[in-house]
Amino acid sequence: MSSNPFTDHPATVGETYGQHLVAASGFGLSMILCGFACLVHGLLPFIFLLTGSNTIARLNERMVVNRRRAPVPSAFGGQRRVAQRPG
Predict the structure, then answer these.
(1) Which of 3, 8, 13, 79 could make an SS bond with 71 (beta carbons 3.0 to 4.6 A apart)?
(2) Domain count, the chain
(3) Strand partners for 80
(4) Residue 65 pLDDT more than 70?
(5) Residue 46: pLDDT band by 50, 70, 90 thresholds?
(6) Range of the structural domain that residue 38 is part of
(7) One-letter-per-residue 3-state SS of the chain
């Protein structure tokens, strides 16, 4: 069993370390930019009307709905799928 913190989690979502770095960084950048837009919206409620909700919906779609998961070894020696892509 591998015990490498740089590759264990990325493997559970079907990614290499590099792929996970790019994907997670993209999520983080989107959240930072959305946060700034929400702060501006708080001050000027007539702009960025849908930026926060649209960003959350898009990130949820990417992270939860269309998640790719690699098979994870079960405690009983077999493999099980944690989640699958819809349709």
Answers:
(1) 79
(2) 1
(3) 72
(4) yes
(5) very high
(6) 8-80
(7) CCCCCCCHHHHHCCCCHHHHHHHHHHHHHHHHHHHHHHHHHHHCCCCCCCHHHHHHHHHHHHHHHCCCCCCEECCCCCEECCCCCCC
pLDDT band at 80 (very low <50, low <70, confident <90, very high): very low
What is the spatial distance between Cα 53 and Cα 42, in angstroms, rounded to a whole number? Answer: 14
Residue 1 domain-assigned? no
Amino acid at 6: F
Residue 55: inside a domain, yes or no? yes
Residue pointed to by tokens 């493997």: 11
> What are 7-32's pLDDT values in tens digits?
998 988 888 999 999 999 999 999 99
Q: Report the 10 Å Cβ neighbour count for 18.
A: 9
The tokens of 59 are what?
């990130």
Amino acid at site 47: I
Q: Name, in order, each residue with C-beta under 8 angstroms of 9's C-beta and a sequence gap of 6 or more.
A: 20
